Amino acid sequence: MRSLFDRMFLDPFQRLADQSAHIVPVLVMVLVTLIVGGFVAFVLRWLTYRMLQLARFDHLVQRTGFASMIERTGVFRSPSDLGARFVQAVVWVLVALFALNATDTPASVEMVRRFVDYIPNVIAAGLVLLLGVVVSRMVSRSALLAAVNAQWPAARLIAGGVRVLVMTLAVVIALEQLHVGSLPLLVAFAIVFAGIVFAMALAFGLGARDMARQWLEAKVRSSVAEEEVFRHL
Amino acid sequence: MDELFPTELRTRLDQIGETDIVVGIPSYNNARTIGHVVSAVSVGLAKYFPNRRSVIVNSDGGSKDQTKEIVLKTEIRADDLLLVSHPVQVSHRISTPYHGLPGKGSAFRTIFAVAKQLKAKACVVVDSDLRSITPGWIELLAQPVLEYEYDYIAPYYHRHKYDGTITNGIIYPMTRTLYGKSVRQPIGGEFGFSGKLAARYLEKDVWDTDVARFGIDIWMTVTAIAEGFRVGQAYLGAKLHDAKDPGSDLTSMFRQVVGSFFSLMEGYDGVWKNVQACEAVPMFGFPFEVGVEPLTVNTDRMIHAAQQGVSDLREIYSSFLSPSTMTDLTNYVHRNGQGFHIPDQLWVRMIYEAAAAYHHRILDRDHLLQSLVPLYLGRTASFVLEVTESTAPQVEERIEQLCHVFEGEKSYLAQHWDTIGKEKFHAQPV
């Protein structure tokens, strides 16, 4: 028969030792994974940066206009730096997942499974945002050129508004992909946008009724006059 | 080519068989003016080519008015109009819808195809909104092709000093600088050409581009010159149009014409880089003084357009203009009233840098071309202010000076086109 002393003092220590024997290797493995993974991520970041530099990636991006946007963030030194850090971040996420999976607890396995299932949504949201940036830039530039060539005084404002509109749509779609509540944002945007349009219509139609009439008359008169008197070809 | 011919047209062409002359008239809702054009063409054919077989082809863009009916039913009173007593060949008339993108170029394509199908020796095209066309135009445009083995006859008109500013400011100087032929109205709209050249045009795969629209005129001229066809000019007097071309807003017209020209520069860069000097082009017809319609130009509006463009589009201009050009542009454009001026050298460098940027695809080509419109309006205002008191010969002399600047700066274009452009643009963030 085991003594009271054994049951009160030795058994807990024994259980602690057994549990430690199970946990410590896992912790060591997680630690090693993080250290090695961090080193690999750093090396890959350095390699990516060098490769992008060699491929003149910064020059290519400069032509699209994203370079100034990236530099304005103050976080990244250049487009190549952004690309390299992105690769590093992806490697870090993979390393973290690997480490989490290594603990082999039901909670961690479930967390990893959910995260992996979520990756396509993250990729889709990222692509939507990227597309939104490209499309908003193209569309706002088209709007700017059309407005300038029509000699509208608020050309830049119109172009900016178009850009905000397209980007807002992209953000809403991206949030939908991430299953984050996008409805409040959409509703808020719709209310603000409708409010602006309504206020402008009221201001223009009521507050500046005479000006509106004169402006429209002048537009019609000047366009007809130009067609009648001038040939460019 | 079969897709260009609806069944009705094919049947008609089979009935006609072969012809000597095809006269093409593109149209879209031109019922008001096309009757006069058809009369002039019919009389011209009967009077100057009584023994030649001829076909008048109206290539229509789906007119909603009576254009087609007027083309087919317009009668000529032989005794009164022709002043001839000898028997004449009656010309056939066809009115057919064209295939492809809506525009003048697509209409011309159908005319080329008809000319090829009928084995025409000469082909003439004239606009359907002309008010000043006379029967003599047909003789002047077709005779050099039929009798003197010319392949391409461009028109030569007297125009108001403010008229045809894309021609005077860009297209004429650049055509003669790059391709070495002094064709004064390269985008005149009325042309004569050989059946051989019509067949050559048809071989080109350009009918989904701006050539199918307003780019057709410059494309025909440059193709003829660059490919070594024999080119001449015909003096036609004055050119008076109807008030407005349907669908001709400045931005799209400018984009199509200048875009087609820049695009041709890419296709023929092996040609224009080797051209060292400009030569005169033979002129047919008897030059005479004519009165032209008075024009009024609102320079204040144009100056405002240029100033707004330089302010609002600064980011776009910085992407394709060199820093020195950008600085000069800013300095000159923001002077108001009579002080507003865009010098020749600055204008030429802007156009050359834009052409190089188009070639290197520094930014979306459509955006590049659209962004040039305010600069063009500014340059036009500057030119108008400069020649307000000048006579027609003085204005012509002034355009000649501009051509010399274009020619003098050609090496600048070549440098930007080949190497410097790329380096500069890489170093110049948008």
3D architecture notes:
The complex is a heterodimer of chains A (233) and B (430). Chain A contains 8 helices and no strands. The termini of chain A are far apart. The relative contact order of chain A is 0.05. With 233 residues, chain A is mainly α. Helix content of chain A is 88%, strand content 0%. The mean pLDDT of chain A is 82. Chain B is α/β, with parallel strands linked by helices and 430 residues long. Chain B has 2 domains: 2-284, Spore Coat Polysaccharide Biosynthesis Protein SpsA, Chain A, CATH 3.90.550.10; 299-427, no CATH class. Chain B contains 19 helices and 8 strands. Chain B has helices at residues 7-16, 31-48, 67-73, 78-82, 104-117, 135-148, 165-179, 195-203, 216-226, 250-267, 269-272, 299-312, 314-320, 323-333, 344-360, 365-386, 392-408, 410-418, 420-427; strands at 21-27, 54-60, 92-97, 122-125, 152-158, 191-194, 231-238, 283-284. An 8-stranded mixed sheet of chain B has the order 3-2-1-4-6-5-7-8, with helices on both faces. The longest helix of chain B has 22 residues, at 365-386. Classes of the chains: A mainly alpha (233), B alpha/beta (430). Chain A binds chain B through residues 56, 59, 62-65, 67-68, 138, 141-142, 144-146, 148-149, 151, 153, 155-156, 222, 225-233, and chain B through 162-167, 187, 189, 214, 217, 241, 243-244, 250-251, 253-254, 257, 295-298, 301, 304-305, 308-309, 312-313, 315-316, 319, 362-364, 367, 370-371, 373-374, 425-426, 428-430.
